[in-house]
Design goal:
Two copies of one chain form a homodimer. By secondary structure, chain A is α/β, with parallel strands linked by helices. Chain A has eight helices and seven strands; from the N terminus they run E-H-E-E-H-E-E-H-E-H-E-H-H-H-H. At the A-B interface, helix 1, helix 5, helix 6, helix 7 and helix 8 of A face helix 1, strand 5, helix 5, helix 6 and helix 7 of B.
Chain lengths: 240, 240
């Protein structure tokens, strides 16, 4: 079941494009637009979408009313920055994303409503929602626009998928290189110590053991790979 | 200690403005700009910043080089989407934000590097970082621009402040020793490279840059303390 982003009476085509781009970046497909001011399709949306609208990454549906747009949705969130007197649960984007992902696993669809740029969602719009999403922002400078709010929400929905499956993020890096085993590291350290010893590094004699331990500790906590040890061998050999 | 956003050779003033706005939304103050294409100040940044630049929400500093911009930073992340052969730890934005918050609690500063719009950070830029941040995006449509990447990072840094402070990442024992800042580490690396260069280590010439980057990467991911750098200096001096 998809998660729908629903733009309610959006004004600028440019912002529809930014929303589409944000969605595509995070694997969301379903964009519903309610009564867009400048109609649909809207040429102004294309460039800001960075290809998301033109290349089939996004399915767009247009509706005359919000009622029609949310008709088949199982749970509806209204995004709003303002304090509202309406008695609805208020969520942060992260917890809403996690709940949406769980709902998806149960075969239930979620909609996220975003209001018009200038005024935000109306009381009547919010009345159609089950709950509210408020973005945590700096109280002294809160200026999230439509595209930014959509980006954060899309990001959290994508992250929520990874949370559940454990580690979905591609954590590559030097962890993939074969780590040096203890023998390799000790071999390198013995070589280094011998060279330093020959040059009288470990003085005074009563501090020699501590100095050697410190040197060892320095290299032991580096999570050295085999390649690292080879490089260090080469460096030390070259210097000596 | 602040978290710095560092824009490296940014091209469009507009994007500098979007970054400033993203930062102000999430309570970040320190924006460092390295060699902006169109100079600084730049009129084009003002409107997209939504007042963040004009109303004193952001402190801007301009630098000629990235080395100078990171000199006083204790830990540096490079944001990059590409697969890199460099042996550096790769983090998602969330874990990087949590680690930055913990670092802050220990009086240590963090920098996040963002590259030029078209090309992204260069290998030389990334060589100055301790670790990489990669944003998890849809592999079939990955089109995060500079402002969007800055927004997500700023958002995660703000969220990390609110996370349960009991949930600390495991820092190993050397955490109490004062960590080396970037300037100290680069100073050591420059000395080591000069010594190796004088001995003809970086051959063949066409591999010299890669060899230097690999050597740099090896020491950059060690979380070196000030004492470690002193020890390494002494070791290298003694060997040479």
């Amino acid at each position: 079941m998809p998660t729908h982003f629903i733009l309610v009476r959006p004004q600028m085509g440019e912002n529809i494009g930014f929303c589409a781009r944000a969605m595509a970046n995070f694997g969301l497909r379903s964009l519903r637009i309610v009564a867009p001011r400048d109609g649909w399709p809207n040429e102004a949306a294309n460039r800001p979408s960075a290809g998301a609208l033109q290349d089939g990454h996004i399915d767009v549906q247009v509706f005359d009313t919000l009622e029609a747009a949310v008709a088949d949705c199982h749970y509806v969130y209204a995004t709003t920055a303002r304090e509202r007197a309406l008695a609805k649960p208020v969520n942060g984007p992260r917890e809403a994303a996690q709940a949406s992902f769980q709902r998806q696993g149960r075969g239930l669809s979620t909609a996220i409503l975003f209001g018009p740029e200038r005024s935000g969602l109306s009381g009547d719009d919010i009345a159609l929602a089950n709950a509210i999403i408020t973005f945590p922002v700096n109280p002294e400078f809160s200026s999230l626009n439509l595209g930014q709010a959509a980006l954060l929400m899309a990001y959290e929905l994508y992250q929520a998928q990874g949370d559940d499956e454990g580690e979905l993020l591609p954590f590559v890096g030097h962890q993939d290189a074969p780590p040096a085993n203890s023998q390799m590291i000790q071999h390198f350290l013995a070589d280094l110590q011998a060279r330093l010893d020959a040059r009288g590094y470990f003085t005074p004699a009563e501090r020699a053991d501590v100095m050697k331990q410190n040197l060892q500790a320095l290299f032991m906590r580096m999570d050295l790979t085999e390649q690292d040890v080879k490089s260090l061998f080469a460096v030390v050999k070259m210097l000596g």
